[in-house]
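job 3f2a | input accepted
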Amino acid sequence: MGSSLIPCPHCGKTNRIPASAAGHPRCGNCRKDLPWIVAAGDADFALIAEQSSTPALIDFWAAWCGPCRMVSPVLDKLAQERAGGVKLVKVDVDSAPALSRRFEIQSIPTMLLIRDGKVVARQTGAPPAAALRQWLDNAMAAGNP
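job 3f2a | predicted structure (145 res):
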């Protein structure tokens, strides 16, 4: 588990973003919310995703999967649009076989929304961007009073 360097979409300043932390990342310069996009594997998934204080959108993918490559930029954009509200966690199924078994991933891409350590929504396949956005919005709203 490490950190990544992310340029702020608002002011352009580069920020070091940890894979796991309390709260959500903000730009050190302009203080605006930053998109939180990280990778996780078998060893660090619990800390990065399940213990996250921010709802985690999990993307189970593989480099050889064409539909995964189509969905990935849409998920990145959704994470940017919802900076501060969702954490995008990418899990390579070839590198994390235990997670694939645990969450019964039968086909990819598969997306899960985890809130408070529990799976609250699941989407399999590569729907159009609008359908994926609607799925995420509905899943996020379902857990909020």
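job 3f2a | The mean pLDDT is 93.
job 3f2a | closed
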